[in-house]
Design goal:
It contains 7 helices and 9 strands; from the N terminus they run H-H-H-H-H-H-H-E-E-E-E-E-E-E-E-E. With 277 residues, the chain is an alpha+beta fold. The radius of gyration is 21 Å and the shape is globular. The longest helix has 25 residues.
Length: 277
């Protein structure tokens, strides 16, 4: 083989090793965490082999999101989500102008967890031009309203691709309960992504805490969710979640948000409905 050919092979091998090493440098040891983070950092390179059922966007939530978007986002991202026309051109400080959110940019390359992370914490990295974070400014319901409003501009193919990038909650419900009581959650999750993940934390504005519980009633630290797997049931009799110290009554027909944190993915918000079993 010519010297140039060997040089090309060497460069490819070195780059491949670097890509594999990056997640370890970011999050430390653990092969499972490394694989998960590697995939999470490069969603746009994945191809779906397992398609999760698409959620139905809520018209009322979209309408609320339109109002919040106009107030908080339109000045930068445009009244029609069109973004800055030069959004791909670097500014003097190394940052980029606000990108489009209408499906013509890279918003559909990010999972819900990725989009919520950007919305909560913004994009700064020490640059003069940056997106602010809205954690503490927009509550869970307002954040999801903005997210659904943005998604309402995407075509079906973009929506399907984006929804299948990471784990999501297809269905969640809980039985009515009184203030101060415990309530056991019933969840159905999908993980269509190419990497395993683990549920490691849960919280909700309606309860003091949310515990991960196993079939014997023991509190434990994580629930494993295998790759390319749909219809993962978390319910009593197996691994499930319990709301403790309810701050408000859960009455038939109510809804609230459950925030879940997954390794290699980040946080997602799931709408939980209150209904009798």
């Amino acid at each position: 083989m010519r010297k140039s050919g060997w040089l090309l092979v060497s460069v490819v091998l070195i780059l491949g090793a670097a890509i594999l090493l990056i997640p370890t440098l970011i999050i430390g040891g653990g092969a499972s965490n490394t694989r998960a983070t590697q995939t999470a950092l490069a969603y746009e390179l994945t191809q779906e082999v397992c398609i999760a059922p698409l959620p139905v966007l809520n018209p009322d939530r979209i309408a609320r999101g339109a109002v919040i978007y106009a107030r908080e986002c339109a000045d930068c991202h445009g009244a029609n989500l069109e973004g800055d026309p030069n959004w791909e051109t670097k500014l003097g400080d190394g940052s980029n102008p606000p990108p489009p959110l209408d499906g013509s940019g890279h918003a559909t390359h990010h999972s819900d967890a990725g989009l919520l992370t950007l919305l909560n914490y913004g994009v700064n990295y020490g640059k003069e031009s940056f997106m602010p974070g809205y954690k503490g400014i927009l509550n869970d319901d307002e954040q999801m309203a903005v997210l659904e409003y943005v998604k309402s501009f995407w075509g079906q193919d973009f929506f399907s691709h984006q929804h299948s990038l990471a784990v999501s909650v297809r269905l969640g419900w809980v039985e009515p309960a009184k203030v101060g009581e415990e309530a056991h959650l019933h969840l159905i999750l999908d993980n269509p992504a190419r990497f395993d993940t683990r549920l490691i934390q849960a919280s909700s504005e309606v309860a003091d805490q949310v515990d991960l519980v196993n079939s014997t009633g023991q509190i434990f630290s994580e629930i494993s969710l295998p790759a390319r797997t749909l219809d993962i049931v978390l319910d009593q009799g197996g691994e499930y979640l319990t709301l403790k110290g309810l701050k408000q009554p859960l009455e038939e027909g109510d809804t609230f948000w459950l925030r879940l944190r997954f390794t290699g993915v980040g946080e997602v918000l799931a709408e939980i409905k209150v209904r009798s079993n």
